[in-house]
Structure formats: structure tokens, C-alpha cells
Amino acid sequence: EAAVTQSPRNKVAVTGGKVTLSCNQTNNHNNMYWYRQDTGHGLRLIHYSYGAGSTEKGDIPDGYKASRPSQENFSLILELATPSQTSVYFCASGDPGLGGYEQYFGPGTRLTVL
Amino acid sequence: GDSVTQTEGPVTVSESESLIINCTYSATSIAYPNLFWYVRYPGEGLQLLLKVITAGQKGSSRGFEATYNKETTSFHLQKASVQESDSAVYYCALLTGNTGKLIFGLGTTLQVQP
Question: Cα separation of B16 and B93, whole Å?
């Protein structure tokens, strides 16, 4: 069973509208991450969280907010969506361990802002 | 800062041919970063292909292998005989510090022709 799920899988939004992307994980990981992937940029970190109630800024946080209401759920919020935020968004969860640190990714959300 | 550079794609090879996707890294925030190869098959999210956390060690999975070379700061991905099902986008990544932040390369699209 998929351990990291995202919803919606596809979203079309209008400029200036509010968009919420949701992520749920059943790995019981403390850490969760939001990335965006664009051609020519690879994946870039937007926000991350160390646990419920915690959110931290990543490399490209401008225009995004994050919310971590519980261990399992981590949301990415675009209060005023812009066309430049059209992208594919990936959520991930992961914790450090003796065998190193790996992150488990969701299937991605394709967001188009018109 | 930390960065990852990998072979620009698309890379096209014929089935049963050998493959190498180059990856070099620069890690200024951590002396011995964990190194990863992730793969994204069409329509799916990122999956961990292999990881190596100790310099000089080799990781392998699904016929792919990569050796962590601290001297040349490289982590090239190799496979002796590719299959059509290996067609995907491959990402080299390194883990920085203790936050679990991953730095990704731009990704290399592999197309295997039958």
C-alpha cells in the first residue's frame, strides 16, 4: 500500500485563487517535505516539517505556506496562486536512521494556474 | 553551496546495451554526504533506486550500481544491460546536514529502444 499519498493528483486553478495541496503519510515519520519539480530545475525544496505543529522554510518558500496539523498530514497552501506556480509538486516523508536517511515520495500533484 | 550535476538528457540506448549516467557533487555543508539515485517511471512518483552512505562503498539495485567516490566526488550510475522497462527519469541526490534536505540534480531522461 502507498505510504505517501497526495491529493488532488491534478488541479487547475485561476490566478489569484487559493490552492491547498494535501499530503498524508502512514510511515509514522517525523519529517515531511514539499518539493516542486520544473524542467531545468530538478526538485527544489519549498517547506518542510519536523513534526506536528512545526513548519520550516526551504529554499524557495516565497508564495507558499505550509501546515502540519498532525503527524500524518502536511499541506501546502498557495494563498494567491500565480502562473509561475504551475508545476508538479511532490510530498515526501523520512527520518534519519542507522542505515542512512531516505525519503519516501508521493505520486505528485500536477498544478496548472491559468 | 551544495550541488549535484548529472548527465543531461535525454539519453537513448538500445535494449541490452550498457548504460552510464554521470553524477558529480559538491558538498560544502557536510564532509561525507549520503548519496542517492532516485527514479521516476512514467506516471509514478519518485522511488529510491539505491543509496550509499559510506565513501568507497557501492550500492546496487535492479541491476544498477553506483560507487561513492570521495576523491572524484562522483556517484555514477551504471548498468551492464538495460531493458525497455528501465525507461524513466533518473535523479542523483545528496543529503545535506541533519534536516534531511535533499539536493537533486536536474534529472536524466533515459529512453531504451527495443
Answer: 26
pLDDT tens across the length of chain A (114 residues): 559 999 999 999 999 999 999 999 999 999 999 999 998 888 999 999 999 999 999 999 999 999 999 999 999 999 999 999 999 999 999 887 655 678 899 999 999 999
* Helices and strands, counts by H and E, chain B: 0, 12
d(CA A42, CA A31) in angstroms, rounded, equals: 21
* Closest residue on chain A to B45 (Cα): A107
Nearest to A94 by CA among A27, A1, A6: A27
Q: Is B51 on the interface with A (CB under 8 A)?
A: yes
Which of B50, B96, B104, B109 is best to mutate for the A interface (most A CBs within 10 A)? B104
**Is A58–B44 a contact, with Cβ atoms under 8 angstroms apart?**
no
B29 Rama class: left (phi>0) / alpha (psi -120 to 50) / beta: alpha
What single-letter DSSP state applies at residue A102? -
Positive or negative CA dihedral for A24, A110, A11, A85? positive
Cα–Cα dist B3/A101, whole Å: 18
SS3 A83: helix
> Could B101 and A106 be called an inter-chain contact, meaning their C-beta atoms sit closer than 8 Å?
no
